[in-house]
Amino acid sequence: MNERPSPRALVTGGSSGIGYATAAHLAGSGWVVTSLARRELAPEGVAAVAGDAAEPGDLERALVTAAPEGRLDGLVCSAGVPPSGPWDDPEHWAQVLRVDLTAAWQAARLAWPALRAAAGSVVLVGSIVGAAEGSLRSPAYAAAKAGLEGLGRSLALIGAKEGVRVNVVAPGAFDTPFDEQLFPASDRPDIPLGRMGTPAEAAAVVAFLLSDQASYVNGAVWRVDGGRTVLSPASSAGLAAPDAHTES
Fold first, then answer.
1. Of the residues 112, 141, 174, 222, which is catalytic?
2. What is the pTM of this model?
3. What percent of the chain has pLDDT over 70?
């Protein structure tokens, strides 16, 4: 009886942050992983391809490494640029939309035949910014991340009849260079769990959605934010105040 071959995955943005942690998690779980990022840097055991995740030619080169036999079990679109400004700069708008939204569409489009051949799965790494929160610094970032959710739902419909599942992970505040740290990572009054997330925690959710354990999860948006988006301003003030029910 032939053994099932190791699943193969392509992770864009795999040189840092959540992308790096995801590549490491998958490789440690028996996946054959290829990372596409501007820096030729990846976790141990992960093939690194240097390139622009929004450039079709670079994506095609990465797919040659990731799916040499034309089969791809997992695609993780984690490449992105952080929110910055100025908000009304047309060049900034175009660049953020290109990397944070169009790149994911390009990756899915080009990888689709290999994903279909393997009945694979796609995870787009979005954000709570856009769908749940606005951005003072970068409406472009919020628009791109909100757009990823629409892209994910649409691809989920397209892929359902072809055996390809597509989901979105929407992180909140994570302890990476990508996030602006307004408070200490371990003391966040704006998050019910009281701290920022770690890249490994987001990677675990991404890996679950790629796995057979999530075989009936399709077109979903999973928020990984420590409860931040369910916290009202009044509740946030209550978290910062002394416990009114503590006995003296």
1. 141
2. 0.89
3. 88
